[in-house]
Design brief:
The protein is α+β, with helices and mostly antiparallel strands. The protein is 51% helix and 29% strand. Strands 1, 2, 3, 4, 5, 6 and 7 form a seven-stranded antiparallel beta sheet that branches.
Length: 243
């Protein structure tokens, strides 16, 4: 017995046909996808890829070169600083040598000074001993009175030895034995030879006295001018104040 569809397909048959069409379409798309994904790249695509890689490598090389230049510049600066330090060290070593020489010279000078000090100490001790001896020889002065410090006798012109004047007031007393047409004068000089006072015409009196005021304490001497004087005696006195 033959069945008929009366010119129409059954619904189940339509569904099967649609399903087969969909599956076929999906399978075709899958094959196209596989074909596309596994297909080898064209030469132009490879060249562009290599060019991009080369460009990246060139950029990297430039970065490395720039970094290398910076490192080399830093090295040059460090070498320059090192040379400066070496020069400074050489200068310091030279300065140290000079200082050592100076120290040696100063040590030699110090030794000489020590020897000089020792010599001066000996000289001071000698002078102190001499001063002690002179103090024993110098008479004690009486304050508030005239004190005799020297007496000179003679018959002719002469310069007396130096005598010490410890105060500012000096008195000279004289006594003469006159001859015919006598001349008798006394001049007072400082130790350096400076004329301080002159007393002339003393022959007019057999005895007398004269003064010198405001003297600087120190050493002095007399120049006694005597002509036609049989003998004379000159006494030098100083006034020692009480205070």
């Amino acid at each position: 017995m033959k069945s008929t569809t009366n010119g129409k397909l059954k619904p189940i048959t339509v569904l099967i046909i649609v399903g087969l069409v969909v599956v076929g379409s999906l399978f075709g798309l899958y094959l196209i996808f596989l074909t596309t994904s596994t297909a080898p790249s064209t030469p132009s695509t490879d060249i562009e890829e290599y060019q991009r890689k080369i460009a990246k490598l060139e950029d990297k090389i430039k970065e490395l070169q720039s970094d290398l230049d910076r490192k080399e510049d830093t090295i040059r600066k460090l070498k320059a600083r090192l040379r400066e330090k070496e020069d400074t060290i050489e200068e310091l070593e030279g300065t140290i040598d000079e200082l050592r020489d100076t120290i040696d010279e100063l040590e030699d000078q110090l030794k000489e000074k020590d020897q000089e000090i020792a010599r001066l100490k000996n000289e001071i001790e000698r002078l102190e001993s001499k001063i002690d001896l002179l103090e024993k020889l110098v008479p004690k002065y009486v304050k508030g009175e005239w004190n005799v410090i020297a007496t000179f006798k003679g018959v002719g012109t002469k310069d007396t030895p130096l005598f010490s004047v410890p105060s500012s007031e000096l008195r000279v007393r004289w006594k003469v034995t006159r001859g015919t047409y006598p001349v008798f004068s006394i001049w007072l000089y400082s130790e350096e030879g400076e004329l301080i006072c002159t007393w002339s015409g003393l022959e007019l009196e057999k005895t007398g006295e004269t003064y010198a005021h405001n003297l600087e304490p120190g050493y002095y001497y007399l120049r006694i001018w005597a002509a036609n004087i049989r003998k004379y005696e000159v006494t030098v006195e100083v006034w020692i104040p009480k205070e």
